Amino acid sequence: MAGVLTESILNMLVNDMRPISMVEDEGFKQMVTTFHPGYTLPSRTHFTKLMEGKYEATFGKLKNALKATKNKIALTTDAWTSVATEAYLGITCHFISDDWELNSFCLTTMPLEERHTGTNIAAWIEQAVERFEIPLSKVVAVVHDNGSNVVLAANILQEKHGGENYVTVSALPPLVRGLLKSTHTVYDTAPVQAFQAAASEETTARWSREVTITDDDPSKQIIAAALDPRFRKLKFLTPEERFSVQNKVQALALQSSRNEEATAASVDNDDTAERTPNRSVSALDSLLGCDSTDSDTGNIASKKRASLTPEHVNMLTFLHCNLKHL
Fold first, then answer.
1. What is the mean pLDDT of residues 26-32?
2. HEC string of 276-301?
3. Residue 28 pLDDT greater than 80, yes or no
4. Contact present, 69 and 95 (Cβ < 8 Å)
5. Tens digit of each residue's pLDDT (9 = 90 or more) over 51-94
6. pTM (whole model) above 0.85
């Protein structure tokens, strides 16, 4: 019975954002004694240890939940200062479950002991998601205020982890065409001319099939380039080739649309979710809420709780925001 009462008091402290020192207040002690005369109220130190243990258990549950979801995740960041003049960075995550329910969790309320530069903020965000083993390729957006340092942090993360930094098949045709064009520049020296001839021969032998159009049938690589916003103007092609590729893309789009209509006509409306998994996934990745936890954390770190260590502020905020969902 004593264990149940102690657990109930701990949950009250977390849910109502009460300071742990409340268990040492005379009025609280009298109330507990009145309700259960035989119960010995544990010390503040004991409740602190219980909170730390509950934090570790809840942290593990959230980590597993984030690993289990296959959908994209959005992050929200909030930087603020407590009444004890301690700076914090709050990071929350949001994703939509396969049952189309919005899930929002507090990842961390991180004490900031270094300068709030864009580089440092980017590193802190990376550190937070790494603790939960969230691959940054899974993060679809980072919502933040318009502070110059936070904007810089987002730009750093975009540059470092954005998909456009990785070579894609669509980059192959303009790259190879550009290389071949450079070998046609006339130089006077024989060694350079010999190198150009060799480079042109080797490049053509290796990549010609991927970057040429035969019988008005462009390669998959050229189709990919036509669909890539970076290369869709197809400036690396001749006007005739460009026209041929654009016609091919339109024909493929029309055929794809007809196939979808045919599939839709043959499947009952009740099976819509199964019939259009790609659209469902796209919506799941896009319809994300972005609430923040700064107000909750501010309450926890208010004047009456200003004696809390930054580590315990993080734990109380984490438990208050997440415990009821896990």
1. 94
2. CHHHHHHHHHHCCCCCCCHHHHHHHC
3. yes
4. yes
5. 999 999 999 999 999 999 988 999 999 887 777 778 889 999 99
6. no
- How far, in Å, CA of 237 to CA of 21, rounded? 73
Average pLDDT on 128-141 reads: 90
Distance, CA of 129 to CA of 301 (rounded, Å): 23
In the chain, domain spans? 2-53, 67-166+288-325, 169-263
Output the 3-class SS for the chain.
CHHHHHHHHHHHHHHCCCCHHHHHCHHHHHHHHHHCCCCCCCCHHHHHHHHHHHHHHHHHHHHHHHHHCCCCEEEEEEEEECCCCCEEEEEEEEEECCCCCEEEEEEEEEECCCCCCHHHHHHHHHHHHHHCCCCHHHEEEEECCCCHHHHHHHHHHHHHHCHHHCCCHHHHHHHHHHHHHHCCCCCCCHHHHHHHHHHHHHHHHHHHHHHCEECCEECHHHHHHHHCCCCCCCCCCCHHHHHHHHHHHHHHHHHHHHHHHHHHHHCCHHHHHHHCHHHHHHHHHHCCCCCCCHHHHHHHCCHHHCCCCHHHHHHHHHHHHHHHHC
Q: Name the one residue in this structure whose structure tokens are 């300068």.
A: 115
53: its two tokens = 């243990």
């190879």: which residue's tokens? 176
Contact predicate 157/136, CB 8 Å: yes
Rounded-to-integer distance, Cα 93 and Cα 91, Å: 7
CA distance 132 to 62: 8
Amino acid at 9: I
